[in-house]
Amino acid sequence: MGSNPDGKTAKRGPYAKSRLRRESIVTAAHQVFAAHGYRGGSLQDVADKVGMSQTSLLHYFPSKSELLLAVLVLRDSVAAGEIARASDGIPAGLEESFVDAVIRQARFNETVPGVIELYTVLCAESLTEDHPGKAYFTDRYQRLRESYARRFRALAEEGRLREGVDPARAAATLIAVWDGIQTQWLMAPENIDMAGCLRDYLDLVVLPG
Amino acid sequence: MGSNPDGKTAKRGPYAKSRLRRESIVTAAHQVFAAHGYRGGSLQDVADKVGMSQTSLLHYFPSKSELLLAVLVLRDSVAAGEIARASDGIPAGLEESFVDAVIRQARFNETVPGVIELYTVLCAESLTEDHPGKAYFTDRYQRLRESYARRFRALAEEGRLREGVDPARAAATLIAVWDGIQTQWLMAPENIDMAGCLRDYLDLVVLPG
DNA sequence: GTCTATATGTAGATAGAC
DNA sequence: GTCTATCTACATATAGAC
């Protein structure tokens, strides 16, 4: 998806260039918004990083808010790509456990420069009035809570959820631990063990299979 | 502290007026920063809320960043005031348990308009480059983690910490749950039970006395 | 202490030449 | 597609009259 190992169908000329240009702009915007937030980061900053003028940048994205949405879509595709890569080649019936998948994703995020910064900073910023990322984040959290709640309910049916734990509340709490520990990790990376804290929580809630 | 029930020493004239003026400015700034963040909120917004000109406002606070620090100090004093009020009149030896204190503080915050917004929005914003609130938040988290870790160690000595739980990591995780659940509550207040999630976590970690 | 006027800087977005 | 020039809006902060 995206790359064309088959030479015959590879895009050529202005179209391919334009797509690459857009990608480099979104990548630069990712860095700028991660470091300064949406309001604090300027189109000029992004343009400087790409090496073009601010007006040329607006030729590719009609407005700053459109650029933000493109950055958020990129973030999703990075995470989804990793999940696809990891589940690749694993035979059916031997899928990774929910707990392991969470820990692995947390560790993976830690290695990608800027993803955690971007997510943490923009998520909270989106809570402010008239923020163009608000819908993205509220929708995402809604879906994520439902997804995790389903996982916990499935574990409960296997008798692997600790007595008294409510799947829906555990879902919200897991997301909370994850988000909250990322914030602390950004402030003091050497003092915070993100994957460790996530595993601690999941070990309390999920009984060994 | 601050108020003077004794009439003789009450401040009069310009001084008292000035102090009240400062307080109303900080209160207005609290609202503005909670709704728009530090970067998104303008001194003009604050001045409009107070009913004065933007330049007059700068007569009381030399800069926007100084105003932010004053807002953060106010936030602390509100929380500390509540703690003092709650422990008032409780006989020694019958102090509130750590778990109960956390739950009560969480419930209290929920009732104060804007405190959770302000905290969540500014905390994440402070992670961006050159943010005047950065030192406040990093210091605060450092102290908070140490304080909670001490509490958990004390519980461990009473044999009331669950087997295998590390006090330091539990401290970071408790803060994470608290912060993270606040974010979700701001997005969907009707779907999130903040105090419930905190109690769920603490019940997993702290054994009944 | 409060204001008007203003300095100064920067933002996002548009028009139009090349 | 890319640029320069510009528009418009708004920001923080300063100077100085009253």
Automatic annotation (TrEMBL), chains A, B:
Q: Which residues bind DNA?
A: 42-61
The record ties this protein, via Pfam families, to: TetR_C_6, TetR_N
Domain HTH tetR-type spans what residues? 19-79
What is the name attached to this protein's record? TetR/AcrR family transcriptional regulator
Answer yes or no on keyword rRNA-binding: no
The record ties this protein, via InterPro entries, to: BetI_C, Homeodomain-like_sf, HTH-type_TetR-like_transc_reg, HTH_TetR, Tet_transcr_reg_TetR-rel_C_sf
**Which keywords does the record carry?**
DNA-binding, Repressor, Transcription, Transcription regulation
Query: Which organism does this sequence originate in?
Result: Arthrobacter cryoconiti
